[in-house]
Amino acid sequence: MELHFPLTWFSGAMAEVSEEEYGEEGEPKLKYERLGNQVTEILKEDAASCMVVHDKFLALGTHFGKVVILDMDGNRAYEFSSHMVTVNQISLDEGAEFMASCSDDGKVFIHGLYTIEHDTSCFFDSPIKAVALHPQFGKNQAKQFVTGSDKLLLCERAWLGRQKMLTLHQGEGTISTIKWRTDLIAWANSKGVMMYDMTQRRRITTVVRDSTDLREEMYPCSLCWSDDLTLLIGWAHSVKVCIVKERARSEARDLPGRYVEIVAAFQMDFFISGLAPLGQHLVVLSYISETDQKVHGKGVASRPQLRILHPLDDDYEELSCDALSIRGYQNYRCRDYHLAAHPGGELMYYIVSPRDVVVAKERDQDDHVAWLLHTKQYEAALLAVELSQKTLKRHNMLEVGQSYIIHLINKGDFDLAARTCQKVLGKNTELWENEVYRFKEIGQLKVISRYIPQSGKCLRPAIYEMILSEFLNTDVEGFAQLVHNWPGNLYNNQVVVRAVIGRLNRCPDQPTLLHTLAELYTYDQRYDKALDIYLKLRHPDVFDLIGRHSLFNAIQDKILLLMEFDPQRAAKMLLENEDKVPINKVVKDLESEPRLMHEYLHRLFQTDPHKGTQYHELQIGLYAEFDRPNLLPFLRHSIHCPLQKALEVCQQRNFVEETIFLLSRMGDSRQALKMITRELNNVDKAIDFAKEQDDPELWDDLINYAITKPLFVTGLLNNIGTHIDPKILIRRIPEGMKIPQLRDSLVKILQDYNLQISLREGCEKILVADCVGLMKKLQRAQRRGVRVDDDQLCETCELPILPEDVNRGVDVIVFFCNHVFHKECLRMSNTSCSICSGRRRGPGTRAVGVKTS
After folding, report:
1. Distance between CA atoms of 471 and 448, rounded to whole angstroms?
2. For residue 249, what are the contacts with CB-CB under 8 A and spacing of at least 6?
3. Can you cite an annotated GO cellular component (predicted)?
4. 373-406 burial code (b ≥16 CB/10 A, e <16)
5. Helix (H/G/I), strand (E/B), else coil: 629
6. How many other C-beta atoms are found inside a 10 Å radius of the C-beta of residue 629?
7. Which of 21, 206, 315, 555 is most buried by a 10 A CB count?
8. In whole angstroms, what is the distance from residue 587 CA to residue 566 CA?
9. DSSP single-letter state for residue 509
10. What are the DSSP calls for 264-320, one per residue?
11. Are strands 281-287 and 305-311 parallel, antiparallel or unpaired?
């Protein structure tokens, strides 16, 4: 994926990459900005040769021998013009208190950034290609640093401030770069990468250079410590990850105490201009050799690429690759690029070329949203904005949501676009109205109607009226649904009513529109008009309308219409509101429709049998005419029904069961029994009737009638045993009569007799047991002692019941009711308490004689 930087240089801190320049592949891992401000002016006149990065500032070396201190925005803070030619390398200590620089002029300068006390300058007789300060140079008493030319020199302060130089290594070519971390120094020369342990004062490893056929000065080595023990090496086509480990004491002998293990090594198909760590990954600045394109007979280089790699044992996985449009990249070679990493926790990388400095940063949520919008992943962008609204600076819900809505409309997904308006537009009425007009222009008003605000902060009434008009002209059912669902205060009800009436005048036969018009009249509180329409349509909502708005005055002349529409609901409603619609009014209005009158009076009788008693005589004929199954229950429960009138009606219509009931109720039991036996010919019913009446003469009549009918005799034998003596029936059976199932009937009589005997015996046992238990209880109560106290008085003479002289004996009578008498005060004929005997008689009034002595 190639990222092209815009050509315009801004006056601000940094120039951002244009969002329109994203590639078509996956989302980039990093974002890129060109370091601007005074860096632009510096590199117009000079060219960058190297750079070192600290948390608070940048140090840029140039080909004119200058070292410029810049703030993080590219503004010049200070400038050192110490060298005459190209600055090869710059080094900072960990505290960023001191800075060292070296050049081909053989000079090394150490500058204090906050003090000049320890400023140092060293002059050598050969070009110095590399320099590195002790990580704790500011605190280190020896003020150690190393330089690299054809040998590695350790410089430190000796006695009286003189410089002492110690050669750590030489004889293997020119040293091109040095990196010092804690007590380990790594450097690269023509043979490879060496590492020196300052604690043990000896070299611990040599990592041999792979690509010996390539010129070292054209494809220099890149070194980077990812932590205190891990060194990253990038050289030409190869990358190696080395870890410093402690050697076991048993293996040490004459070997160094530490050794280096190469944990990953792989070859690239490009050249490496720089590398740095990114968590568990690597950031590699790669250079592609010249393309086939030529300018003035010379090959033209490709854009450098910043790649993120995941190292494996002997291979790697490429996670991303961004091609950078560095200014003048066509003329640069691998050695012209450098990669400097931010030393803090922030993911920031500086790509340095002679005329350009580009900053690669970790992408934030704003960048993620921008990429999603550019790649038309609007739904994902909207979700990302929704989840990260508080952290976003360049994007917001409204901006992204409106872009998504436009995209959906262009794609033709109008329903999703309208649904998205709910989430995006919220309660912004102006934006809502703009979107409604947008949907109107594309002919999709119906779609957005389901989602526009219907409560709270609503739109102007004209918007809702426009939508209703659209539905009225194209979709009557949808229009009715909207009117039903929308609150009536959203629009001007009169305007919509006039539109509906106009449509009905043109097309009168539209029940749906009539029903909708009734709803509109209801919203407008013109209930009389709504009621007329509901009755005309015979719509069930008429009853809810009447009850909800108490329209009982309006239905005084519409009772018959309501009963004709739904007799049961109408009768229920009228009876629940009989104080508003009197019973006699309803009955009078229903005189022309006896069936409807019956429905009303029947429900009235079920609700309260004591109401409308003056209509019970009328109801006899109505039940007989329209509802015979309920006639007999009515006759049973009504106490206001004229029996003679009812008997006449039933006899006229030959209603046998009702006639039998009435005869029985009027006292003519014999005639009723006669009808049961002759008209119904049902022995079981005749027996049940005789049981109910419990009249011996009635039983005698039944036996006389049944004695000539064997089936009746069988029925009587089976049921008579518990009411009269079976012998009466058996003696009167004619001799020789064949009676079906006689044996079973006689067996049943005997079983019933045995059952009665068993019940009597059981009851007797229970009675005897209860009597014995009560007698024992009474005996225990009467044998119980009765307490007599000194302060008790005789109930007759009212003197103390016990004498003061305990030696004189006195007879005392104590009753179980606790009344006490002297014996001489109580007549001898009295065996019960004279006080209690006047009030009640019971076992507690009996006396117990007590003698004291």
Report:
1. 12
2. none
3. Golgi apparatus
4. bbbebbebbbebbeeeeeebeebebebbbbbbbe
5. helix
6. 7
7. 555
8. 16
9. -
10. EEEE-SSEEEEEEEETTEEEEEEEPPP-S-EETTEE-PPPPEEEEEEE-SS-EEEEE
11. antiparallel
Residue whose tokens read 């609007």: 378
How do strand 294-295 and strand 298-299 relate by DSSP bridges?
A: antiparallel
In the block, residue with structure tokens 């594309």: 442
Q: What is the pLDDT of residues 124-183, one digit of tens each?
A: 999 999 999 999 998 888 899 999 999 999 999 888 778 889 999 998 899 999 999 999
Contact 573, 547 (CB under 8 A): yes
d(CA 249, CA 312): 30
What span, in angstroms and rounded, lies between the C-alpha atoms of 723 and 691? 8
Query: Are residues 723 and 702 in contact, defined by beta-carbon separation less than 8 angstroms?
Result: no
Amino acid 414: pLDDT: 92
- Residue 11 confidence (pLDDT): 29
CA atoms within 13 A on the CB side of 578: 16
Tell me whether residue 117 is exposed, middle or buried, using C-beta atoms within 10 angstroms of its C-beta: 0 to 12, 13 to 18, 19 or more.
Answer: exposed
Closest CA to 175 of 197, 142, 213, 146: 146
Report which of 203, 207, 248, 242 is spatially closest to residue 226, judged by C-alpha positions: 242
Q: Which of 6, 20, 31 is nearest to 373 (CA)?
A: 20
Contact 422, 397 (CB under 8 A): no
3-class secondary-structure state, position 187: strand
User: Which residue type, as a one-letter code, is found at position 102?
Assistant: C
The conformational region for residue 173 under phi > 0 = left, psi -120 to 50 = alpha, else beta, is left
Residue range 350-366, pLDDT digits in tens: 999 999 999 998 888 99
Contacts of 218 (CB under 8 A, 6+ apart): 333, 334, 335
DSSP-derived 3-state class of residue 226: strand
The first and second tokens of residue 853, run together, are 């002595």
Nearest one of 498, 499, 430, 491 to 461, comparing CA atoms: 491
Burial letters 195-204, b for 16+ CB under 10 A, else e: bbbbeeeeeb
For the record, the structure tokens of 596 come out as 């409807």
* Residues whose CB falls within 8 Å of the CB of residue 748, separated by 6 or more in sequence, listed in order: 717, 718, 721
What tokens does 390 get? 């508080």
Q: Which of 68, 15, 6, 80 is nearest to 43 (CA)?
A: 68
For residue 74, the SS3 value is: coil
Among the listed residues 280, 281, 279, 273, the one whose alpha carbon sits nearest the alpha carbon of residue 302: 273
Kindly state the helix (H) or strand (E) to which residue 15 belongs, with its residue range: strand 14-16
Phi, psi for residue 184 in degrees, rounded to 5: -115, 130
Return the residue matching tokens 């957005």: 448
**Contact (CB, 8 A) for 602 and 615:** no
Collect the ranges in the chain with pLDDT lower than 50.
1-23, 292, 842-844, 853
Long-range CB pairs of 533-539 (<8 Å, 24+ gap) are 535/561, 535/562, 535/565, 537/511, 538/565, 539/515
Alpha-carbon distance 305 to 326, whole Å? 10
Residue in the block written with tokens 């996985």: 317
Contact 249, 258 (CB under 8 A): no
Sole residue written with tokens 């990812």: 226
Q: Which residues pair with 68 in a beta bridge?
A: 60, 79
Distances (CA, A) of 2 to 176, 316, 348, 379: 31, 21, 19, 25
pLDDT of residue 540: 84
Secondary structure element (H or E) that encloses residue 543, with its range: helix 541-549
In DSSP terms, 110 is beta-bridged to 100, 120
Query: To which H or E segment does residue 665 belong?
Result: helix 656-665
**682, two tokens:** 């049902």
Q: How many CB atoms lie within 10 A of CB 462?
A: 12
* Residue 410 exposed, middle or buried by CB count within 10 Å (0-12, 13-18, 19+): exposed
Contact between 57 and 96 under an 8 Å Cβ cutoff? The reply is yes
